[in-house]
Amino acid sequence: MTAPTLPRNAALLLVDLQRAIDDPRWARHGPRNNPDAEARVAALLAAWRREGRPLFHIRHDSTEPASSYRPGTPGHAFKPEAMPQPGETVVPMTANSAFIRTDLEARLRAAGIGTLVVAGVITNNSVEATVRMAGNLGFQTYLAADACFTFARPDFSGRMRTAAEVHDLSLANMDGEYATVTDTAAVLSALSDPTA
User: Fold this and answer.
1) What is the residue-level pLDDT of the chain in tens, covering all 196 positions?
2) Would you say 12 and 147 are in contact if contact means Cβ atoms under 8 Å apart?
3) Which of 28, 109, 136, 142 is a plausible cystine mate for 4, CB 3.0–4.6 Å?
4) Alpha-carbon distance 133 to 127, whole Å?
């Protein structure tokens, strides 16, 4: 995996890590990949907190009546591994990108943040949409691939694809064009680099 270069103010963006993602409807075509993704998210979050680096919790506030992410439902709450602490920034979003109809870009620009590390769910939806926009907006973006996951689904021709296949194709869409795909171990190693 590519080793990231992380300046002191590199921000961690955690996308849609809410209880909603555990709703069985997500796995109707088959199980998710990366069963340890939440543990890796927790490791990233702990490292960012320990070093006092900027972090942003992206919370999906769905406007769809049947969505498990709708405010007021149990699924709207953050997962325990990604629970914000008092004073940490929560950015609510209603689209599939953390940059659409939110103040995320303005917050990042105001803080002089140019480098992002992204993790969350699902790889081929809100994570990919956020990463694509981050890259297009000029942010140096790293995606911690093993701190993301998705679910099995049929492709456009109707052939069923496993969660790992969907995840890997999404990573291929992003890597080198919008972001650098890396993993949690490489990110944590970069954080401990005294020259960063």
Assistant:
1) 667 889 999 999 999 999 999 999 999 999 999 999 999 999 999 999 999 999 999 999 999 999 999 999 999 999 999 999 999 999 999 999 999 999 999 999 999 999 999 999 999 999 999 999 999 999 999 999 999 999 999 999 999 999 999 999 999 999 999 999 999 999 999 987 755 5
2) no
3) 142
4) 10
Strand partners for 57: 14, 90
Domains assigned to the chain? 11-191 (3.40.50.850)
Residue whose structure tokens are 């075509």: 29
Q: Give the Å distances, CA to CA, from 148 to 38, 40, 44, 87.
A: 8, 9, 12, 25
Supply the pTM of this predicted model. 0.96
| Residues paired with 118 in a beta bridge | 13, 143
Q: How far apart are CA 188 and CA 150, in angstroms?
A: 23
